[in-house]
Structures
1.
Amino acid sequence: MRAVRCSLLLPYLLRLLLIARQNFLEGYCQMSSFFERYGPWALITGASSGIGAEFARQLAARGLNVLLAARRKERLAALAEELKARRTVNARAVEVDLSQPDFLPTLLAAAAGLEIGLLVNNAGFGTSGEFLANPLERELAMLEVNCRAPLILAHELGRAMADRRRGGIIFVASIMAHLSAPYWAGYAATKAHNLLVAEGLWYEMKRRGVDVLALCPGATDTEFKDVAGIRARYPQMPVAPVVAAALRALGRKPSVVAGFQNRVVYLLLKLLPRRLATSVWGAVAQKWVNSVSSNPLPPLPVRWEKGREEDSQTSSQPPETPNTPGSRS
Ligand SMILES: NC(=O)c1ccc[n+]([C@@H]2O[C@H](COP(=O)([O-])OP(=O)(O)OC[C@H]3O[C@@H](n4cnc5c(N)ncnc54)[C@H](OP(=O)(O)O)[C@@H]3O)[C@@H](O)[C@H]2O)c1
């Protein structure tokens, strides 16, 4: 009786084995084709924490060697050691401040002799709160790190990729790139820059064999909020699915919004008239600014409140004490 049962089960077991083998081979082929398209080295900026560190882990899992760049060298070195111990890849760390005008030679020296097939322009930070209350130097540093550095790196490494007729560039933008965001105005504009450059280059560079993608995360659980000086009371995505969404979309789409809920928000934003979307965001954000600031926002002038031309003279003074954003950047 037992022998009969076994002989009945045998075909099913064989079938399961075949499926498992097929899945393994498909996974292996995907991994090797990813390596062929974007290997052997990836340069990841802002790899000392959050989304950048997760990019390093997932790219190493796909067999790419990683060059990790940021200011906190100890963290980069620890991550490089972790990756070398867990994977059969090479990993290097380079300390660089992307807000400095002469950052490029430092990075190029670290990348000398390495064939960078994938650039992940991830490093970035945000200012939040009233524009006039933030130090101008910080807004300018944000432009350097979020916009100038990614553009320079894409130009420098993109040319080498185009010569080889293969490679990839990922710009980490944000869902805020799709919105004019009061109290995040400068930051949202830097992310819109990332998004628009990436989408334009996606079209331009595909004929050169280079895939370009803008990743648009929503709120993600990283150190970003600490640096921006905000307290997060909203749901945040973990980093792993955010990065996985980017690696799935690379070579398939010009941009991707990570996460189902964020895609719903994105669609709503597209449906609302632009002015209304800005006003809704502003109304929500101003409550938040008032709740965290010791210096409440002035009331709106009468002409805004009641649609009249007279302006109340009381509201035109900029705040005296600046917001206190996080210490990094
Ligand atoms: N977390 C979110 O909710 C969210 C949402 C949408 C988009 N994003 C975007 O995702 C990207 C990664 O941010 P994250 O969320 O992972 O935040 P994070 O944990 O604060 O990581 C930011 C990374 O950028 C690096 N960085 C900052 N300033 C730098 C500078 N001057 N020079 C070199 N590296 C610098 C930091 O490294 P060092 O401090 O060691 O230099 C760090 O590795 C950013 O572009 C951000 O705009 C984040």
Note: The first strand starts at residue 41 and ends at 45.
2.
Amino acid sequence: MVLNYEEINYERLLEGYRVLITGGASGIGKETALLFAKHGASVAIADRDQAAGLQTEAELREISPESFLVVADLGRLEEVDRVADLVIERFGSLHSLVNNVGLFEPGFLIEQPIEALGRMLDVNVSGPIRLTQRILPAMFENRNGTLVHILSDYCLRGAPGVSLFAATKGAIYSFSRSIAYEYSRYNIRSNCILPGMNIGSHGDLYIERYGAEEAEADFAQFQPLAGRGSTLDVANAALFLASELSRFVNGDQIDITGGACAKAHKQYQRREEANWRNHVTFLTVPSTEALRAGGLK
Ligand SMILES: NC(=O)c1ccc[n+]([C@@H]2O[C@H](COP(=O)([O-])OP(=O)(O)OC[C@H]3O[C@@H](n4cnc5c(N)ncnc54)[C@H](O)[C@@H]3O)[C@@H](O)[C@H]2O)c1
């Protein structure tokens, strides 16, 4: 463990780290794997997509030769165990686990088949919990470990059509907090990243469903900042949480939504836009005379 910030190499934040990233073949997982490798980590990726996985493995090895792919369906516990066994065998000990794989099946509650809940529980809850349970002991000897769970802003905000998905992601949000406490004695930290609805495959799905124009207008309603977040926005947060830069951050989360959780409700927003001029005047520091005229001594 680096105890002194002067010892940190900001160009190689994960030098010598051995990490496992689930769903590392594409999307946020791939972005995170490549960024971690650039920062000196050996990266194991676990993914069910063999073709994309082999492509990512080749790209990783050019940067970090010890990196490798395990092909597995992480919605099945026996496969999760196989991944844990293989990665521990190859790496010996681990410094970081990124639980990134997720299954998103949207729908209104009364219309969704209950089987959708089972599928999402397998991939979003049982898989990450089992993998964490198997990987944690391989972190103990390093006295330095980080768990990063890629979840969803729906853990904090309600939205129609995502209740089952939100329930499964919320389970790991709560899980992370208790793990953060339970294994802090080994200097193992557990934190979450909550990407917003327009990032990665979730955003692509939204655009596909509602069209680019309507999607853009919706995104503008959801968040104060303009535009879409990128997979690299999420990977950068994962780098921070996996590295010593976040050594005093534990049981917490980073929300990557362009400020969606700070968003005012619609009525306020309309008023704010209509009275923007007044607002600017209101926000300008008033003169002493104006303050006195207002009764301030
Ligand atoms: N607003 C939101 O809720 C939101 C937004 C963006 C991302 N996310 C979350 O971030 C994570 C990554 O998102 P993404 O857009 O990069 O995902 P993605 O759909 O692009 O998939 C990433 C990878 O996971 C692999 N994968 C999927 N299911 C698997 C399984 N059962 N076993 C093994 N591999 C599997 C895929 O093959 C793929 O390579 C997910 O957990 C997702 O839910 C949430």
Note: The beta strands are 18-22, 42-47, 68-71, 96-99, 145-150, 188-195, 253-256.
